[in-house]
Design brief:
Blueprint: H1 2-24, H2 39-49, E1 54-58, H3 69-81, E2 85-89, H4 99-120, H5 127-153, H6 157-191
Antiparallel strand pairs: 1-2
Helix pairs in contact: 1-4, 1-6, 4-6, 5-6
């Protein structure tokens, strides 16, 4: 178990570093994102009219939970007429990147790598197969979440494709690191006469 935790920590760090490279040092970080035209008056209007932090869907339906037929028809008409979308909003603002965010992201990457390592322990795949397994896990997450956001909420296609590349490559990398570290740990244990841990069986 200690070997798995150590390998997962290294894999999580690898994913964290890859996330920094892909988002801060490559075009992937800005793929599909645009700045607001004529931003200043829009922000002033937002400050004056949206006091609370939140995720806003527009056009909205107020506080109604059960729409009448007329309200439903009016909402459909407003959606067709536009504009419509999602607004992730924070009136107070915050630093672009905070130490707390970096720590949370690193812990998140470690936990995800640990789960991937546990799943890999149930396989008998070789190195290439394990890397493909990790890539498939990333692909599954992308299909289940990002593609659904593209379908239902209209996220930009370029943004979603960049997310897909990031997810697949990150978890293929994690599987590679996990496999290499665990293989080296097993080889070291065999050389020292210590029996390596038996992988879980189905």
């Amino acid at each position: 178990m200690n070997r798995l935790i150590f390998a997962s920590a290294l894999a999580g760090i690898a994913v964290f570093i890859w996330g920094f490279i892909s988002h801060a040092l490559s075009p992937l970080g800005e793929a599909g994102l645009s700045s607001l035209p004529n931003e200043a008056p829009i922000l002033e209007a937002m400050r004056a009219n949206i006091p609370a932090k939140g995720l806003y869907f527009f056009p909205g339906v107020g506080t109604h939970t059960d729409l009448t037929e007329d309200e439903r028809r009016a909402l459909i008409d407003r959606m067709k007429a536009g504009p419509n979308g999602l607004l992730l909003y924070d009136p107070e603002g915050h630093e672009l990147i905070t130490p707390g965010q970096l720590v949370i992201e690193l812990i998140n990457d470690f936990l995800a790598a640990l789960l991937l390592g546990i799943l890999l322990g149930y396989t008998s795949l070789g190195l290439v197969g394990r890397v493909a397994f990790g890539a498939t896990v990333g692909l599954m997450a992308w299909l289940a979440i990002s593609v659904s956001y593209w379908n239902w909420y209209g996220f930009p296609t370029t943004y979603i494709l960049a997310e897909g590349f990031g997810q697949v490559s990150a978890w293929a990398l994690a599987a590679l690191v996990l496999s290499l570290v665990m293989r080296r740990a097993s080889a070291s244990a065999s050389a020292s006469g210590t029996s390596p841990p038996v992988p879980p069986q189905h």
